[in-house]
Amino acid sequence: MAPEFYFRGTRGAYPIENHGVVMAGLKDILKDVMFEGWLFVCGSVIVRWLGDMASTKKAGNATLVQNIVPVIKGGVDEEPRVVIKEHMSGIDFIKVNDKIKRSDFTIADVRHPLAGKPGRFWGNNAKTGSGKESQGLTKYSGLGIFDECGLTFGLEVCLDHALKRLRKSPPGRNQAFVQLQLIPSAGMEIIDEAVVAVKNGLVMNCDGRPRADDDTPMSQCKRVTKACGRLGSDATTTDIAIAKRIRVHPGANCSQLFDDTHGIVRFYARTGIDAITGVNKPRNTNWIFDPY
């Protein structure tokens, strides 16, 4: 997993046609048989396009922007999945008071078609609520819960995690509970009250911003020791140790390659997931959310 904004462009977002170029390039690289058995969460791609009256509710054209996370199964020639960030945050785009070129656009110049409209993605007009986040077979729906490699994943981008996107839309009746919860981010950490993975499930956050104390990214991997409850109790988690870290491009000037980080890849201790896998997936057998 790579952090949020991994593909962003010098102007703060790529033209939407370049999104297809990025996706095709990633797919071509990762279909190699050497990547069989891997699942890649490729950070996020920020894309922009011109809207119209129908999409912006304002006369004339306006720039629309979305924050899209590609999820690609390695070693096979399959279409990627995408999860789309639902909420807009102040760091998503170039700030007004930052030094910008005349051709750049700032946060004041763009509109986010999903902001304030939970669950409204391409081809999906459902609001938050039980069962609303399941992608099903539609890989481009943008929704946050999907099955891959025999497991059920839940994915939230940065601010979506803080605002409990997945917890507000738990699995519906007979839908599988999340076993692995993923958070690509830029300034976020794992928040127990937003954790929805089942007991013994895993939560991983890959963050692209450094800690103030030691100037290293805040990436985390945790095991769920107690799942959140249907009566409102929060989950509890425990850290999984970092087994190894590798500094990327050790001979390069990393300030030219990464935004205020040193480009570190972290490997977490080998952690069995047998307790959350098996013949029967953990499913919601009740009309109300009960992850136990």
Question: Can you put this structure into words, describing what you see?
Answer:
- With 292 residues, this protein is mainly β.
- It has a single domain, classed as 4-Layer Sandwich (Nitrilase/N-carbamoyl-D-aminoacid amidohydrolase), CATH 3.60.110.
- Helices cover 8% and strands 24% of the residues.
- The chain has three helices and 14 strands.
- It has helices at 16-30, 53-56, 159-162, and strands at residues 14-15, 39-41, 45-50, 63-73, 81-84, 110-111, 145-148, 151-155, 180-185, 202-207, 220-226, 236-239, 242-247, 264-268.
- Strands 1, 2, 3, 4, 5 and 6 form a six-stranded mixed beta sheet that branches. It has a six-stranded mixed beta sheet with strand order 7-8-9-10-11-12, with no helix packed on it. It has a two-stranded antiparallel sheet with strand order 13-14.
- Strand 7 (145-148) and strand 8 form a beta hairpin.
- The chain is globular, with a radius of gyration of 19 Å.
- The model has no long low-confidence stretch (mean pLDDT 78).
Q: What is the fold named in CATH at topology level?
A: Nitrilase/N-carbamoyl-D-aminoacid amidohydrolase
What does the average pLDDT come to? 78
User: Structural class, from helix and strand content?
Assistant: mainly beta
Low-confidence stretches: none
What features would you highlight for this structure?
Nitrilase/N-carbamoyl-D-aminoacid amidohydrolase, 6-stranded mixed β-sheet, mainly beta, 14 strands, 292 residues
